[in-house]
Amino acid sequence: MPGRLAIFDDKSFKEDSKHLIKNDMVGILQKRYNIPPTTPIPALLNNGNYLYTHFGFLPSWATSKSSMNINARSESIYEKKTFREAFRFKRCIIPINGFYEWQVEDKEKTPFFVKDMKEDYLAVAGIWDEYFEEQLNMNIVTLALITCDANDKLGEIHHRMPVVLEKKDFSTWLKSDDLKEVNSLFKIYDSSKLELYEVSSDVNKVLFDKPSCIEKVVKKQPEPRGQLSLF
């Protein structure tokens, strides 16, 4: 269940999606290395708009923000009233450079960064809707990431992960009316394509947002003990 994201470079995604982007409303990306829920993230909607959205899904009929969801389970997305209509008519792609998960051992939480082994980004399947924000007196686009069971590599840390789309499936995900075809895209991403490594506990701080968030922790090797002399 990715609750923290890193999105700092969308150039490759824009190039791969240029045939699908009608209006680039993001422009020059604001680099973010530790994005929590309720903050803006870019997404390509199935209406062709590439824009900033609210990280946290609220259906248009929601009466309060207490019903916000940052994730939607792929196994039950069509059964849930909250997500059903969005799944049918309002799908999107969220280009993330990586996400964080925490390994819990003896009540200690160790953060790990998860990214694609070769590609610059992970194209995460999502759903969106418009919610009337009273404080702003306007509609805002809200979204949720779709999740599935974790692959073997990530499963050692967490049991869920985002649904990652292959480039060849971008158009199908955004445009297809065949829900069986769309459902077939809910695949577990191959373990061999993912890299994960431990990062600094600074990531635990919601307001800490620097490039160092994604730097690998290099643990010092213990100094070898000198051999004891018998004389």
How is this structure best summarized?
This protein is mainly beta. The chain is built from five helices and 13 strands.
For this entry, give a set of tags:
35% strand; five-stranded antiparallel β-sheet; hypothetical protein yedk fold; 231 residues; mainly beta
- Helix percentage range: 10-25%
Report the uncertain regions. none
Strand fraction equals 25-35%
Categorize the overall geometry. globular
Task: Please state the CA-atom Rg, rounded to the nearest Å.
Answer: 20 Å
The rounded distance between the terminal residues' Cα atoms is 60 Å
Strand order of the largest sheet: 3-1-8-9-13
CATH class: Alpha Beta
**Structural class of the secondary structure composition?**
mainly beta
Label the CATH architecture.
Alpha-Beta Complex
Looking at CATH, the homologous superfamily is: SOS response associated peptidase-like
Number of strands: 13
Overall tally of structural domains: 1
Q: What is the CATH T-level topology?
A: hypothetical protein yedk fold
Helix and strand element order: EHEEEEEHEEEEEHEHHE
Average residue-wise pLDDT: 93
Number of helices: 5
Largest sheet: 5 strands, antiparallel
What does this structure look like?
By secondary structure, the chain is mostly beta strands. It contains five helices and 13 strands. It has one domain (5-208): Alpha-Beta Complex (hypothetical protein yedk fold), CATH 3.90.1680. The protein has helices at 11-16, 81-89, 152-155, 170-175, 179-183, and strands spanning 5-7, 23-24, 32-35, 40-45, 49-55, 71-73, 91-96, 98-105, 108-116, 122-133, 138-149, 160-162, 194-198. A hairpin with a 4-residue loop joins β10 and β11. The longest helix has 9 residues, at 81-89. The mean pLDDT is 93.
